[in-house]
């Protein structure tokens, strides 16, 4: 049987903070008095949704050329927001704060894993991005080009993104934990001309190299990549690095030659800002495309109102890596558009000790913390003594994102980390660009475990499979019923897949097409929304999206493997965990019978896709449960993986298969 991780110690919660039915928390009078958001926002958005977004956009952003049209939805599902306006995204995140007299305000407090600290003001960040923009231009990059960014969490990652945005080009950030193969397929799909990387970064007390993966990715078949810019982060100057003359350039050498003057040109509101690859239900990741004016409006508005940002006094910390959408929207674009001061940390939470995050909060007086339930659950497991030995009194608001947060974790987070601060549980996706469902602090009475209400200007519904609204107390599929400014504009190079994946399920319903999110949801008796997890073959492991099909194709690419089926099994800490069932080719049965064979297959997945995709378990089985039409019945495999009695097997082509799998696993136990 699969080993399950121990339950969080129930004693971790005090008697008052155990979940109870109908439990709610009202905002304190003090919080309400100085809150950024107010209930008026809902009324304004309800009165005129488009005018509401137009107002937000005008008040939060600087438009070089003001827009006259808010939304063009004449060719659904292809939306255009603020289409006749022009702006520069980087100017909005940088220059205008300096021009407004806030150049000395700290934009980034960066701490490396070894403890090195850099404090970078808005004026300094602006100057650095200007130099980098000049560098990109000198390398022949301009509007219409794609730049791949494969960097650790260092300030240069943000500088690189903003420099690409400043010259109207498009970035594609690839998480540093992805393998060379994953990197190559993303570079190819986007036809990137330039890669920006580093020698390596610090993780878990060691240098984790990055440049070798870029070298491996670019070896072999010719690519569209002309140059590779390399930031020196990890090794000292005299460290030898594999170097391809004529292609590879040191970032610091090149930047030093550049002028810190650069005039930000304006670009169309719909100019592509970035492509970010995410897992779907097929083996091929989708390049989610976001554009400029609508995206920046949505991220700036939500960052300010959901996180109650007071830029002159708050220190905000979102723990996401820039390789994910949360890092794009709530480390880079939302916070910088709002002139926030934020902490950025390079390393892992447990290096060099389990209290590292709390130490950072204490040291830098963080007031707003935004993180994922997985992290909270793993801190719960290590016990409240660790956070309690630090001074966390600077915290005044906590956020959660990436997966459903169980009420126990929500309550522990509030009590042990926040000392009673409000929590916002924010539901959204790579595709939505920004937060869609969340409480507003100071306004909403919160319920542990529920994301609750769409933010002002956003319309969602919970629908039956046929597109009818479910009643109170019922579950169904989550849909977004009106276009929104931060919405994805397409899948890079694949408009048909865009229409098919998101807009075909509810195409024929009233006022359709509606956006199908791929998540299940329940409406409670008050009409509040509870998220129930994915309804498709996408898994959510530690808040990272992984596709079953992608891992299956990595497994069958291994010479031993004839067939593979992957399921996401419930996991106490990571939400879901990857569990694979594999049939070995008969000619390799001897090799696969050796001890450690399953581990070899786990490592194979990690090196093909990246360590985040490494299965928790690989079971070697002789058959897989299939229907008469040959479809794998994952539901039954999930039962096995979660250690439950196997459910209804009547539609199996061969009813003895599950017995055989059970016997095989029992042998191993
Ligand atoms: C899940 C991350 C429950 C959901 C921003 C969604 C959540 C997927 C929540 C998107 C939440 C995200 N409660 N589930 N607060 N936030 N999800 O694209 O299944 O990496 O579809 O974007 O994460 O993951 P993605």
UniProtKB/TrEMBL annotation:
Tell me where on the tree of life, at the top rank, the source sits: Bacteria
PTM (free text): Acetylated. Deacetylation by the SIR2-homolog deacetylase activates the enzyme.
Residues at which Mg(2+) binds: 556, 558, 561
What is the name attached to this protein's record?
Acetyl-coenzyme A synthetase
So which cofactors does this thing need? Answer: Mg(2+)
Instruction: Report the GO molecular function annotations.
Output: acetate-CoA ligase activity; AMP binding; ATP binding; metal ion binding
* Gene name linked to the record: acs
Q: Which residues carry this modification: N6-acetyllysine?
A: 631
Q: Name one GO cellular component term.
A: cytosol
PANTHER family per the record? ACETYL-COENZYME A SYNTHETASE, ACETYL-COENZYME A SYNTHETASE 1
Q: Identify the keywords attached in UniProt to this record, alphabetized.
A: Acetylation, ATP-binding, Ligase, Magnesium, Metal-binding, Nucleotide-binding
Enumerate the spans annotated as AMP-dependent synthetase/ligase domain. Answer: 99-492
Q: Where is this region: Disordered?
A: 1-26
Which processes are annotated in GO (biological process)?
acetyl-CoA biosynthetic process from acetate
One Pfam family name from the record? AMP-binding
Q: Which CDD domains match?
A: ACS
Q: Binding positions for CoA?
A: 203-206, 326, 542
């Amino acid at each position: 049987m699969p080993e399950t991780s121990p339950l969080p110690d129930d004693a971790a919660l005090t008697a008052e903070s155990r979940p109870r039915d109908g439990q709610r928390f009202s905002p304190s009078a003090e919080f309400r008095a100085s809150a950024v958001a107010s209930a008026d926002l809902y009324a304004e958005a309800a009165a005129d949704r488009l005018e509401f977004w137009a107002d937000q956009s005008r008040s939060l952003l600087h438009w070089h050329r003001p827009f006259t049209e808010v939304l063009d939805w004449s060719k659904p599902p292809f939306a255009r927001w603020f289409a006749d306006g022009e702006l520069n995204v980087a100017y909005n995140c940088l220059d205008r704060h300096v021009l407004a007299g806030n150049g000395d305000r700290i934009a980034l407090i960066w701490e490396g894993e070894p403890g090195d600290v850099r404090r970078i003001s808005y004026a300094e960040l602006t100057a650095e991005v200007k130099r980098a923009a000049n560098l990109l231009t000198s390398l022949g990059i301009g509007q219409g080009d794609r730049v791949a960014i494969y960097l650790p969490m260092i300030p240069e990652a943000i500088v690189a993104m903003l420099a690409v945005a400043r010259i109207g080009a498009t970035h594609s950030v690839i998480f540093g934990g992805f393998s060379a193969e994953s990197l190559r397929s993303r570079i190819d799909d986007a036809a990137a001309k330039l890669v920006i990387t580093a020698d390596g970064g610090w993780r878990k007390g060691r240098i984790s190299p990055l440049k070798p993966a870029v070298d491996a990715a670019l070896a072999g078949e010719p690519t569209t990549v002309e140059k590779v810019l390399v930031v020196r982060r990890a090794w000292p100057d005299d460290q030898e690095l594999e170097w391809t003359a004529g292609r590879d350039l040191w970032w610091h050498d090149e930047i030093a030659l550049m002028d810190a003057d650069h005039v930000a040109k304006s670009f169309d509101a719909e100019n592509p800002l970035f492509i970010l690859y995410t897992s779907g239900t097929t083996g091929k990741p989708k390049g989610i495309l976001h554009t400029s004016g609508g995206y920046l409006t949505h991220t700036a508005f939500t960052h300010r109102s959901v996180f109650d940002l007071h830029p002159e006094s708050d220190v905000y910390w979102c723990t996401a890596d820039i390789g994910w959408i949360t890092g794009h929207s709530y480390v880079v674009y939302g916070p910088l558009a709002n002139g926030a001061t934020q902490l950025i940390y390079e390393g892992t939470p447990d290096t060099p000790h389990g209290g590292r995050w709390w130490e950072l909060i204490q040291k830098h007086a963080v007031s707003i913390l935004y993180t994922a339930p997985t992290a909270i659950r793993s801190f719960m497991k290590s016990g409240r003594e660790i956070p309690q030995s630090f001074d966390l009194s600077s915290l005044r608001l906590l956020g959660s994102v990436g997966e459903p947060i169980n009420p126990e974790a929500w309550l522990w987070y509030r009590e042990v980390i926040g000392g009673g601060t409000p929590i916002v549980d924010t539901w959204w996706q790579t595709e939505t660009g920004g937060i869609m469902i969340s409480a507003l602090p100071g306004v909403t009475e919160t319920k542990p475990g529920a994301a609750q209400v769409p933010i002002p200007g956003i319309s969602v519904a919970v629908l039956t499979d046929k597109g009818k609204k479910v009643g109170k107390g019922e579950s169904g599929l989550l849909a977004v019923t009106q276009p929104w400014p931060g919405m994805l504009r397409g899948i890079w190079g694949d408009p048909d897949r865009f229409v098919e994946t998101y807009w075909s399920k509810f195409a024929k319903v009233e006022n359709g097409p509606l956006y199908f999110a791929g998540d299940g949801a329940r409406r409670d008796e008050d009409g509040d929304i509870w998220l129930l997890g994915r309804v498709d073959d996408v898994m959510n492991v530690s808040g990272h999206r992984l596709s079953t099909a992608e891992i299956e194709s990595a497994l069958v690419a291994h010479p031993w493997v004839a067939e593979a089926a992957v399921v996401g099994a419930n996991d106490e800490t990571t939400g879901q965990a990857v569990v694979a069932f594999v049939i070995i080719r008969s000619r390799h049965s001897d090799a696969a019978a050796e001890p450690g064979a399953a581990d070899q297959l786990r490592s194979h997945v990690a090196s093909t896709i990246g360590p985040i995709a490494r299965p928790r378990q690989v079971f070697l089985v002789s058959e897989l449960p299939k229907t008469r039409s040959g479809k794998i019945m994952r539901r039954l495999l999930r039962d096995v993986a979660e250690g439950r009695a196997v459910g209804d097997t009547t539609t199996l082509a061969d009813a003895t298969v599950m017995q055989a799998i059970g016997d095989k696993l029992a042998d191993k136990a």
